[in-house]
Amino acid sequence: MGLGKRAAALLCAAWIAVCCTGCDSLILGDTDALMRPPRPTGDKAGIHELLEQTAGANFTFKYPAGGDNRSAIIMQDLTGDGTQEAIALYEKEETSSTGVNIMFIYKVDGVWTSMGSFASAATQVDRVLFGDVNGDSLPETVVGWGSGQSGVSSVSVFSLAQEDGTLRMAETRLEQNYSRLLVMDFDGDGADEIFTATVSMGEQPAQARLLRMRGGAIELLGSCAIDSAVTSLTAASGGLLGPEQPGVLLDGVKATNTFVTEVVYWDQESRALVSPFLNQETQTVEATQRSLNITSRDINGDKILELPMVNLLPGTPTQNASDTAYLTDWHQYDAGTNTLVRVMSTVTNSTDGYWFLIPDMWKDQITTEQDVSDRSLCFKRWIAPEENRAEGSSGVTLLEIRVFTADQWGEELEADGYFQILTNNNLIYAGRIPFPDNSLAMSENDVRNSFKLITQE
Predict the structure, then answer these.
(1) pLDDT tens, 366-382?
(2) Cα torsion through 420, 422, 428, 431, rounded to 10
(3) Torsion over CA: 199, 235, 197, 305 (sign)
(4) In this predicted model, what pLDDT tens digit does every residue of 350-371 receive, in sequence order?
(5) Residue 365: CB partners within 8 Å, gap ≥ 6?
(6) Residue 455's pLDDT band (boundaries 50, 70, 90)?
(7) DSSP state string for 136-154
(8) Which helix (H) or strand (E) holds 86?
(9) pTM for the predicted model, two decimal places
């Protein structure tokens, strides 16, 4: 190698080292730099220019921690004209400025123009929600500031107003801590309500509240006590509890390995917010208590929420049992009879990221065995006397589900009876039915239809 080429190579190596060092410092040291907005092009450039004029060139985007709207610039039709306005969340670089700012932006004669900019003392955004909470047929912007789980939070409602013929946004603040925040129509009047749930903290009781806006003020529609033993609300799922009954399923942690789901809804007959499973004497919920951390959801895609109840499968030691050792029965709530109705049962394998629908013919007839080392889960027939299903032994394997890499998969495995259930991210989820003539054996197509990746939910 000539001197010129050797020098060029050394210079190239030095430049690569500098670039790599810079990347490391950016990734590991300057996290705020990652949040600084890139230079947009096209229509969004006008939004960026307006933010720079207001906040300065070195503002930092702030991203909501939860909810469906996770962007620092959220597009939403706030005026009802069929075009989208922009909601920007940012933090100024000035040392004198603390907290998160929010700006509402719309177009006037093709130019992005501010409809109002507001400052919050909070250092983070929990979530941004939309709903018609004042009954004007336009969506209000409901912002949860701070962190619900830390108990330091508040709510702002931003609504459209006219000021000297100009569209402006007005802020109404709700100085109330919350653990979970939702916006939906609870009472069926066509307008949305704001739902908050708080855990017990100091003198603050565990409580669910339903609020709405009327005449520019936030008013309390109803409230009810909720489980006082819950220390953390891990999820809140709002939607239909039954075909015509909206409500919320609150998933919470009570103690180590103790979890619970609470049903809360607006009772039209009594015109009150109710928690039907709350024991008024103990101020706790026992009916939905379980030892596995699985959250409520619409598990079967019928637009109705289900809550989980779990039971250890037979032949499994209770100590340090994995989630594959539990049968999860998914229930819908029937408000008319105040009962839980089972709709389906599953076994979850969180290690390999899937759940499996248990056919009704397997109910009380199976147990499971998991081998983490070869990523396999076997469903085995459980042989036991009818009068005591807990006393018995495992029999033949009805189904084996195993996870392979694409490199591991080949004709040899197919020759051993494995068939592909699903392929995802270079992984092959395969099944094997060792005894297809068994009365409890499933078909390959039934296995495929019963298998769901957790990431698909």
Answers:
(1) 999 999 999 999 999 99
(2) -40
(3) negative
(4) 999 999 999 999 999 999 999 9
(5) 381, 382, 440
(6) low
(7) SSSPEEEEEEEETTTTEEE
(8) strand 85-91
(9) 0.84
Per-chain mean pLDDT for the chain: 88
Q: Are 262 and 277 in contact (CB under 8 A)?
A: yes
Cα–Cα distances in Å, from 356 out to 172, 304, 361, 371, 444?
Answer: 47, 20, 14, 16, 13
Angle, alpha carbons 246-251-254 (nearest 5°)? 145
Among 94, 207, 79, 98, smallest CA distance to 138 is for: 79
As a whole number of angstroms, the distance between CA 22 and CA 86 comes to: 33
Q: Are 175 and 154 in contact (CB under 8 A)?
A: yes
Q: Do residues 224 and 207 make contact, with C-beta atoms less than 8 angstroms apart?
A: yes
What is the rounded distance in angstroms from the CA atom of residue 266 to the CA atom of residue 272? 6
What is the rounded CA–CA span in Å between residue 277 and residue 249? 12
- 48-52, 59-63, 168-172, 199-203: range with lowest mean pLDDT: 199-203
3-class secondary-structure state, position 350:
coil
- The torsion region of residue 216 among left (phi > 0), alpha (psi -120 to 50) and beta comes to left
Q: Which amino acid is at 1?
A: M
* Exposure string over 271-284, b if 16+ CB within 10 A, otherwise e: eebbbbbbeeeeeb
Closest CA to 448 of 424, 426, 427, 419: 419
Using alpha carbons, select from 332, 340, 344, 331 the residue that is nearest to residue 242. Answer: 332
DSSP helix/strand/coil, 270: coil
Q: Alpha-carbon distance 306 to 237, whole Å?
A: 10
> How confident is the model over 65-110, as pLDDT tens digits?
999 999 999 999 999 999 999 999 999 887 566 789 999 999 999 9
Residue 402 has pLDDT above 80, yes or no: yes
Who has greater pLDDT, 385 or 133?
133
